[in-house]
User: Fold this.
Amino acid sequence: MATHPILGLLDKGDHKLVLAESCTGGMICASLTQIPGISSRLCGSAVTYRSETKSQWLSIPLSLIEQYTAESAEVTQAMAREVLAKTPEATIAAAITGHFGPDAPREMDGVVFIAVSRRVGEQIVQVTCIRRELVQTDRLSRQLEASQLVIKQIQSSIQ
Assistant:
């Protein structure tokens, strides 16, 4: 039986993954748990949908959220860094935030930020942070598209 590509990459690099999800609402983790054997490599996901939860669960300063908004590169990077810091067994973390409407500012509607961090020895380093405009227009399709983008970003970050 063939191994799923992301599981193969996590195995090859001896990585354990943790996630911090906002706009995807746990969909990334749910999709990964469909892969047989992923339990050896997936630590879990913190679904921090609201600013207060990001602050309380991940120690994201509310001042950072107020300065840049919850849907920003800066907050997404902090989410990836902090979820990794709070999960000592994990070696790689991915985080996502974004606007899916209905009250999103027009220029931000359908925009997501994806960040990946890695543990290198005792240090946590930022691997990448990208901004993407989603193609899909309805909420569920946007969540699915965003989830797939995160999985692809994780794969490209550990190859």
